[in-house]
Amino acid sequence: MKKIVKNFNNFVKKTIFIVKNKTNNNFKIITFNRYLLIFIGSISLYLFYLLIPLLYEKNWVQANIESKLLNEFKIKLSSSANISYHILPSPHFLIKDTKIIVNGAEKQRLIAEIKNLKVFLSQKNFFNKDKMSLKKVFINNANFIILRSDLKLLNKYNNSQFSNKKLKINNSIIFFKDHFEEIISIIKIKKASFFFDDQKLLNLFNLKGETYTIPFSLDFISQIDFTKEKKINFNAKSLKLNIFNQSIKQNDNSISGKSTISLADSIINTKYEVREKLIIFDSNQSKIKNSKVNYNGVLLINPFHLNLNIDLNNYKISKLSNINSVLIELIKSKLLFNDSISVNISITANSNIRNEIFQTAKINLHIINGKINFDNTEFFNNKIGSLKLSSSNLIFKNNKLVLNITVLINIKDSDNLFSFLNTNKTSRKKIQNILINLDYNFLNNHIDFNNVKIDNKEISNQLLTIISDFNDNNVNNFNKSRRLLNKMFSAYEG
């Protein structure tokens, strides 16, 4: 009997437990379904809310977007009817095949052609279209055409406060053109962004791109407060090149700043001050590889006038040919043959390095009224003597770039000269000076000797014939020069 009662009690408990579990499960299912319905309803309402801009009149949307882009980003769009609305990845209007124009001196001018322009919207109040506001703007696949005259406009834009809403540019190209509208440079933009940081009061601009197949990054920071400080950093890792510039605009509108150019093992530091059209600059902490470099100068913008003094200190004199090659290419461009350009450049160098022909050098470049000369350029050998350039004149005529110049070689110790050249003792005669007048053609690297004097005496035709072997400068080298000079000294009667 007890066993039967016990089994009955267990059956009742199990039955009650099963009923209770079924009741709880049903309650959970009902609760889950209720939340699911609320969630689906909320999503549906949210999607309906996001689709409200589809109801806006198209002409109103176009006019409103153009107005806000102009007011907030200084972007003036030409009319484009190809506007569509999308809710992913976030609500935005997509404008295809539009253009940006600027007001020129005489007429409006195209400055950009844009394949896709996305205007992202703030989601605060779609019910009231008049309160529609922009959140950010993306420009994709655009071609920008920048003229030299546009640089003033860009500088003016940089000096004003950017929008605090981000403007991004992706996969685009900048074409820089001269005043003849010929392309002089192309920059491919991988990605770029502009915006104003409200908390730090900074204009921020950064760009990652490529020019001449060289990838680079550019960062610009402008302080929008009483300091008016600007910082620009350019970096091209493949070239090991970094350029940094920091400037501050003073109360009298003058600008003081400093820049650092790092290239491989060389660093050029410059302090400068800009006063209206005048720039004063100097450096005393620069180096080219292991050589210290100091320089100072004054630059007048209009008309263009430059005074520049460079001290290369303990620099290898033979490497000055690298500077000369850059100068020659600049001269070949004909840019320096300009009546409105005036330049005075002095470069000095001292070398304690062995096996250098010259230990001290001073190179002068003078440009005035479209004429170029290297007068008073001097090279010194401590044991042998000096070489001085005078009466020089560089002209570009009949597609020939020719330098007429007089070279005066003063020999203070002819024995040291002959020892340096390994001249045969029977060919050694005492010589004090050599004067040479020649024409050097930069384009074909050819030398014509007009006149040669040794110790103020005209040389013989035989010596002129020997010297004419120097005419083709493409094949001249130290060994050949030493051989020809020894041949000349052997033929010289004294």
Q: What's the short version?
A:
With 494 residues, this protein is α+β, with helices and mostly antiparallel strands.
Summarize the structure in words:
The chain has a domain of 165 residues. Helix content is 24%, strand content 47%. The chain has seven helices and 24 strands. α3 links the parallel β4 and β5. About 3% of the residues have low confidence.
The biggest beta sheet reads: 24 strands, mixed
Structural class assignment: alpha+beta
The span between the termini is 154 Å
Return residue spans where pLDDT drops below 50 for at least 5 consecutive residues: 11-23
Helix content: 10-25%
Structure characteristics:
47% strand, alpha+beta, elongated, 7 helices, 494 residues, 24-stranded mixed beta sheet
Spell out the blueprint of helices and strands.
Elements: H1 2-50, H2 58-73, E1 83-86, E2 92-103, E3 108-121, E4 134-147, H3 150-159, E5 167-177, E6 183-197, E7 202-211, E8 214-223, E9 229-236, E10 241-249, E11 255-263, E12 266-275, E13 278-288, E14 291-300, E15 304-314, H4 320-332, E16 341-350, E17 360-368, E18 371-373, E19 377-381, E20 385-397, E21 400-411, H5 414-421, E22 433-441, E23 446-454, E24 457-458, H6 461-467, H7 478-491
Parallel strand pairs: 4-5, 15-16
Antiparallel strand pairs: 1-2, 2-3, 3-4, 5-6, 6-7, 7-8, 8-9, 9-10, 10-11, 11-12, 12-13, 13-14, 14-15, 16-17, 17-18, 17-19, 19-20, 20-21, 21-22, 22-23, 23-24
Helix pairs in contact: 6-7
